[in-house]
Amino acid sequence: MNSNLERNIFSGSVLVAQKGEIIFKKSYGIANQEWNIKNTTDTKFRIGSVSKQFTAMIIMQLYQAGKISLQANIKVYLPWFDDVAGRKITVHHLLSNTSGLPNYTDSPDFLSQTAVTQFDSLSFAKEHFKTALDFEPGTKYFYSNTNYFLLGLIIENITGKPYEQVLRENILEPAKMNNSGIDYPDQIIPKRADGYIFTFDGYMNSGYINMASSTFACGALFSTVDDLYLWNKALNATALLSDKNKRLMFTPNIDNYAYGWIVRNVKDFMKTGKSVTLQVHGGRINGF
Predict the structure, then answer these.
(1) Which superkingdom (predicted)?
(2) Phi/psi at 14 (nearest 5 deg)?
(3) Percent of the chain at pLDDT above 70?
(4) Into how many domains does the chain fold?
């Protein structure tokens, strides 16, 4: 980390835990370059697609409560969706990124229009998620943010509550993740880091993005390393989800994608000769 810092190519926080104990926690670089405010371990960062595992957890909680079927077609929960595609795609297909739906964030006007606009998630989906399937559901893996956007709408339809409220009631409050939430651009969020882009000419401010509306249930969260450690602890307990349903959530499907997680076995992990199962997911969003 020090080497990366010396070359000015990393800015952020790191937490390492082993056997339930934090063995390393440190922050590097700058949270706000214009005021030269340094990152601390309670700096809040956008976590991008790491948000997907929270959406997947809520769906699994609804499944555990008998309120949703993973094998049901999505027309059951999204009656407005396209008749043909909606009766082919199941909730499982959305969770495992095997639906065949194109990725709406790949649209040429995503950054110039969608990302900077405030809109209602349901209205946006009804208007834009009408594209024909790229492949038959269940036959291939394709990472599509559209899948997890729709899962957020399914959560809202089943619970009758906004996605953010369900997120807070079902996960953040029980896990005591008090420094995590939806990144609303108009809210004052203490200790929120600014985002930067590293270029050949040095750092630049990242472009504006309305996280709450444009990424919704597929990427809108912010968090801290301490809160993500609490999340990790919650995943190792059974208060949020039973062991049986956690096994289902972490079962890899096509191309090692489980439900909001990539799960794969590495036979020679870090050249140690040990076989290790990794349960991981990256996140990337403007400036982070």
Answers:
(1) Bacteria
(2) -130, 135
(3) 100
(4) 1
Residue of 96, 90, 80, 95 lying closest to 130 (CA atoms): 80
Q: Residue 133: give the domain boundaries.
A: 43-280
Question: What b/e readout covers 264-277, taking b as 16+ CB neighbours within 10 angstroms?
Answer: eeeeeeeeeeeeee
In a domain, 90, yes or no: yes
Q: What is the CA radius of gyration of the chain?
A: 19
In a domain, 15, yes or no: no
Angle between helices 121-128 and 145-159 (to 10 degrees): 130
Give the span between the Cα atoms of 168 and 183, in whole angstroms. Answer: 13
How far are the Cα atoms of 8, 19, 184, 193 from residue 46, in angstroms, in the given order? 20, 27, 11, 8
**In Å, how far are 89, 91, 111, 224 from 135, measured between CA atoms?**
11, 16, 26, 38
What would the pLDDT profile of 137-188 be if each residue is shown by its tens digit? 999 999 999 999 999 999 999 999 999 999 999 999 999 999 999 999 999 9
Task: Dump pLDDT digits (tens) for 6-53.
Answer: 888 889 999 999 999 999 999 999 999 999 999 999 999 999 999 999
Tokens of 80: 């407005």
Residue 140 carries which side chain, given as an amino acid letter? K
